[in-house]
Design goal:
The chain is built from 7 helices and 43 strands. A hairpin with a 7-residue loop joins strand 3 (90-93) and strand 4 (101-110). It is α+β, with helices and mostly antiparallel strands. Strands 1-2-7-3-4-5-6 form a 7-stranded antiparallel sheet. Strands 22-27-24-31-32 form a 5-stranded mixed sheet, with no helix packed on it. The longest helix has 31 residues, at 207-237.
Length: 715
Amino acid sequence: MRLIPQRRTTHQSAQVGPVDQRPIVRRLMSGLLIAVSLVTITSTIAVVCGLAVGYRPVVILTGSMGDTAPPGSLIVAEPRSAATIDVGDVVVMRRPGEPLITHRVIEIETNGISRFAITQGDANEAPDAAPYPLEGEQLVSRWVHPKAGKWALTVFQPGPALAVVALATVVIAIQMLRRIWRSPAPAQARAGGTPRSSAGRTRTVAPRQRRRRAAVLGLAPLATISGLGLAWALFTTNEPVPNNVFGTAACFDPQLGSVQDGETIHAVNGTVNVPITAVDPATSFVLSSVRSSSNEPADSTALVRLAADGSAVEIERSTDNGAPPAVTVAWSVVSYDCGVSVQRGTIAGDGTSSVTDTIATIDPGRSFVLLGSAPGPGDQDFGPDDLVRADLGTGSSVTVESAGAALAADRSYHWQVVTFADAADAVVQTIDVALGSSATITTGSLPTPVSLTNAFVLASVTSNSSGADIGERLVRARLVDATTVEVSRSVGGDPVDVRIQVVDLRDGTTVRHGIVDFATGETVKPILVDPVDTTRASAISSVAVPGQLAGGRSDHVADDVAGEGSATFAVTDSTTVTAERASSASNASFAWQLIEWAGPTWWDPDYVFRQRIDVETGAVAAPDAYTVPVQLDHAALVAIDAARADGTDVRVVWWDGSAWVELDRVLEDNSSWNQTDTTLLFRTQTPIAADSVANYWLYFGNPTPAPVLEDPENV
């Protein structure tokens, strides 16, 4: 037993001593390369298998999910059938044209056909504005790591990932070249190994050593390729998820995509399709007005709607007249890129006085409903079944109702529910007023004051009366001040009820109002207005008669010709709205509204983000040059790389009606950048009336901004 170690020592000294004396670092490096290679290959196989069956890594950038998934978290989401999703699941919502949002399901709703998820971030105070349709396969959170997302975003960018792979490739190449340079042709094997000659020395490589070297040289290239594949897989599927606290430039506030408008003459029975540049039906709606001269409802109106794929405006008539008289429809398709959702549907009468459609739940306080109708072909009289209104109730349904008349099965009603995502962007108030048999004027009071320059009126009339005295059922509705809506008619007689929606948009939309009067024989009236951007403007009346925003009042009582008190409204050029009616046997008066949608266009494309600043007054007006403080969580913006830490990219900008103006801004005393309560000061540019709102804009997200305006004398 004593001789064995002595013989081995002698043997190693004579034959393989140099091998046994290799630096320990070399052996550790070989082992480390093998370990790293095995881990990389195993990880790659796991990731690729996960991706193959539908799993997706998702990085959370902001804080709407609170402690569940703080900013920088990595979520691994698994694919699941929409039918299995229930309350409590955290879903990754994928809406066409919008960034991903990861929120929790707090309620499931159904309209009898489809299921919808009501979602909310764990840290948010209110549910998300738009219900999420549960269809097909959805991504549901399976695993969350609170910090892995930041690491993934850093490492698996193309630059860092390729740098790591390049470094690994260089190390492996050096190892391989060293082996090649030190490996001349093998000599005769002896003593259980392979003797090799190197610099006049003879050494033997044991089988175990050969296996280790083969593993290093074989696994290392495979690991390099696998690492590159892993980086590519994670990078290309890793989808950063903003939420409703911070988003991209398109989603900080309602952003108008386009306004398309036109006039179409419809002179046949059936549907006419008018092609348009395709829009997203989920964020687009149609406004329309009509002019006609028939005394039959089926021949004097049309149902106007957006095609299901958003590629056309459909204008439908249903008449038993072989050669129906022509009607002219002025239409405007308003499409938002973000911040607005639209639900729509068509429902038929059922012989009762009201019919109801279920919708995904909305907030009626920031939603308005548009209603169009197509009378049945046998409808001869302009009566109670033609005068209908829509009601949103508590926000989970749309009800179409008359004053009591049965709604026949051959009548179609098309509704659109338009909802603004943020309650700060829209305030919708609904009130009812009535005109008794002898009354010709009344008013209704709004609970909350509105801005006359930002609000418009949508009114619908119901009545149980009919007959040739149609003027008794034609009304005009208009805002007369911040809290008062006036409803009037030219002829008293039939009792009527009027449902009024007042839509006060605070997203930068502006509204011009006015009255246009037609004398007997007059059919066309140009209306001069202050300049508007015609690419984002729509003109309508304030009253739907029936189902078209074309109504006004008239003293016509000789026959039930709705065209005496209905007209089309079209934006002719930047300073002209044209009102036109087809029947002019009597006087008429209309309250017109010119809506310039969604505020001014983007100030500077180098700034990726913006947020609107609403300067609101109470009972006391504010003069111009009034210093205003605005507080923001600048630290949160910096944390998601939406703003520079030094604040030099944060700008306050004002739209003067024709151009953007950058304003001076300074930090408030004792405030600083990169804080949760950073406070800026700037100066208003025009007086603000009492109970009004003025809009300014905060821009940020420019990595290389020009010098900022920050003169305290101008603040």
